[in-house]
Amino acid sequence: MKIDTNCQNTWCPGCGNFGILQSLKQAVDVLNKKGIGRENIVLTAGIGCHAKIVDYLNLNSFYGLHGRGIAVAQGIKLGNPKLKVIALAGDGDAYNEGISHLIHAAKRNIDLTILIHNNRTFALTAGQFTATSPRGFKGASSPEGNIESSFNPLKLMLVSGASFIARAYAAKSDHLRDLIVRAVEHQGFSFIDILQPCVSFFNNYQFYNQKIYEAEEKNLESEKAALQKIEEWEYEDGEAAKIPLGLFYQVRKPVYGG
Amino acid sequence: MVNDYSILIGGEAGQGSRRAGLIIGKLFSELGYRIFIYDDYQSLIRGGHNFSQIRASNQEVLSSRRKIDFLLALDKNTFNQHQKDLDKNGIVIYDDEKVSFSTRFTKDRKMRFVGLPLKTIVQQAGGAPIMENIALVAGFAKVIGVGWPVLARILKKEFKKWPDLNLKVAETGFKGAPKLVRLRKGTNRKSLTLLTGNQAVCLGAVKAGLIFYFAYPMTPATGILHYFAKKEKEFGVKTIQMENEIGVINAALGAAYAGARTMVGTSGGGFALMTEALSLAVQSEIPMLIVESQRTGPATGVPTYTAQGDLSFVLSAGHGDILKFVIAPGDARQAYFWAGKSLNLAWQCQTPVVLLIDKQVSESTFDFDFGVLNKIKIEKPLIWDRKGEYQRYQNTKNGISPLAFPGDKRAVVKATSYEHDEFGLGVEDEKNVALMQNKRLRKFELMKRQTECLPAVEVYGKKNSSKAVIVWGSTVGPAREAAVQMGFKVIQPVIIQPWPEKQIRRALKGVKRTVLVEASATGQLADVLDRYSIKIDPHTKNPGVGVDRKVLKYDGRPFLPEEIKEKLDSI
Questions:
Q1: For residue range B392-406, what is the model confidence (pLDDT) as tens digits?
Q2: I want to staple B366 with a disulfide (CB 3.0 to 4.6 A). Which of A245, B15, B332, B559 is the partner?
Q3: Sign of the C-alpha dihedral, residues B180, B184, B190, B192?
Q4: In angstroms, what CA-CA distances link B49 with A206, B11, B73, B77?
């Protein structure tokens, strides 16, 4: 069976999600070659533009409620530990509506892969601010500019107990593919925040293209080193700093239910 | 009353009155009595007033009664609060180092007073202060003429921790008490086990193949979580505590999607948090058993007290066009049977089932005949035959689509909260939207037919009576006891959604007057009866209105048979 469904793709032309879809498909191919059969891969999604991805793929999937996909993913993993569960979520999903599930899943260090399609706006509801929208972000619900600061999800994951923390960029497809493969292979809670430009409501391709760089992987077991990389950029717009990409932190520790 | 005893033991939280009450229950069970224990406690850890009320009878008993024959007081407050209910020939056994009565007080009364120096007894035996409850139980056993070997046998079984010390405390207490009455032996010869309604729910679900229990602690459903956690190895049920009730039900749906029989449990507030995912269970057609044990609301309400006030909410819970099973057992035997049946129904119909109980069912102790265990077995759901392309939402005649689970090489299993096509991909076009709504409607019809094939309505008492009490859940126990004596027919709808219309109409044949008895402030089952335009008395001013009279109680305490009898007397 081909991996694409016949479902019509309704993302905006140029949407960052296309890059993520491509990376995920390639990662599934790589995993297949490494002996993880397609039947043993399950995707979960919340609600938002990111979630349409499961309709485009001929893979097992659970298209859940807004914010709750990570809770569903944990149940699936517990229900059948042989399955490789990849939880796809948006920033609105994981950092706003369902943040409790994200934190507790990390705390448990349950063996899941979390991919956050972080476009830093509620796109499917037409452009409101989310937890990772920068201060001053002008959206339908903040015409004068967002009066909240963004928070740094990687920092949150570090203190919550995630054992694999990475950042990727939707437009760097091969880099993301490789990270996904490593995240799935990691024993424990793996988390990748994917910067995903939204062409309709927060088109920051140019900003990212100028700012991102691939950070060197070293001292992966050091919280201090990880924090240093994580704090280079605090998800605001006016920062002079560069935005590091790559794997920042990876440790082995007891896995929930394992 | 002969051979129907009522014993109340009370004290502060932390004095162990509940444990003592349970031992008294076991003692009477051993003596051949049927048992019911009501536990009354407050939302605190130390202090306050807790009590257990044990009813021991030659007949099956499903509620306490008002009059107390033996009042066992670990503190003064217990006596003060309950003396009004003490039978005039009753016996008070109390801690005479904490409680004192003037001679004039005791002389004026026919009731007898037995003081025991509990602290001294425990000290003499070298025990810990918590063992005062055991000293009191032992003293009580002596007062009612139980032989030491019988008591010793029960205590040996009871105490895995420090058996010798507990036995020594008991023996000292036993020796120090007088023998005042001689209890007749009970007539029950069956070997019965005492367990709570929560434990019965667990056993029923285990028998029907439960694999997972997900929960967040909430009284009065917490006992289920504790029992499963304690018996995890024995039952093989993986017990998972999540971050909140929303996490609970979503994770549970994930596990069920992966193929494991799963249950969640909570009370009204937690159920409120679960309702979005309840709708998801209907849309994604994932089997789910949800136990909702009601307590006194609204909001936080009175956390450790009972009520039947969540009925309307549970019946209408879930957004969109939904039908689910709502099943309300009223005692441990029913809780066992319907927990098992509900799990099977959830998997056969790929639907959520709400098992609606309350504090009175959950935390009261019943005697349970293990002979009923074989009434529940795993009933197989419809599984995909692995031919052709798998379609999770195949448009079948009766609305049930075969199940497959992720991990199957031949199937792609897609579950979704969106409206979807047969394969499980999101759709928005009118043809496909209506197609799936119609598929679910056919399934709802199947659920209605299933309901009529099950014992959805129980009828007790005088079958051809023209007067009927309609009652559900835990109130059935006391209502039965009162109404049957008075020549009423008693009708208990156990399945409340889908409404068992045919069975109810059959039960109501020849009935001219009906009374609803419900532990709520508004009498919520009446709304259900109204909806089905059940005409009962063509001569009433209000033809079509479900009940002629509502007998309600909403102070957090369960009905007593005497109260219902008084109300029915005036009708």
A1: 999 999 999 999 999
A2: B332
A3: negative
A4: 69, 6, 11, 7
Domain count, chain A: 1
CATH 3.40.50.970 in chain B is located at 194-375
Domain assignment of residue A21, yes or no:
yes
For chain B, the straight-line distance linking the first and the last C-alpha, in angstroms and rounded, comes to 26
Instruction: Determine whether the interchain pair A79/B258 forms a contact, defined as Cβ–Cβ distance below 8 Å.
Output: yes
CB nearest to A68's CB, from B256, B277, B415: B277
How many whole angstroms separate alpha carbon A194 and alpha carbon A167? 6
pTM (2 decimals)? 0.97
Q: How far apart are CA B256 and CA B346, in angstroms?
A: 11
From chain B, pick out residues whose CB is under 8 angstroms from the CB of A82: 407
Domain range for residue A210? 17-250
Cβ atoms of residues B135 and B167 within 8 Å: no
Q: What is the pLDDT of residue B358?
A: 98
Inside any domain, residue A7: no
- Give start-end residues of each CATH 3.40.920.10 domain in chain B: 4-191
Q: What are the tens digits of pLDDT across the range B463-503?
A: 899 999 999 999 999 999 999 889 999 999 999 999 999 99
Mean pLDDT check: name the lowest of A177-191, B64-78, B436-450, B544-558. B544-558
pLDDT band for position B544 (50/70/90)? very low
Residue A92 predicted with pLDDT over 50: yes
A72 CB neighbours in chain B (<8 A) are 250-251, 253-254, 257
| The amino acid at B411 | A
Report the chain B residue with the minimal C-alpha distance to residue A80.
Answer: B258
Assign domain B4-191 to its CATH superfamily. Pyruvate-ferredoxin oxidoreductase, PFOR, domain III (3.40.920.10)
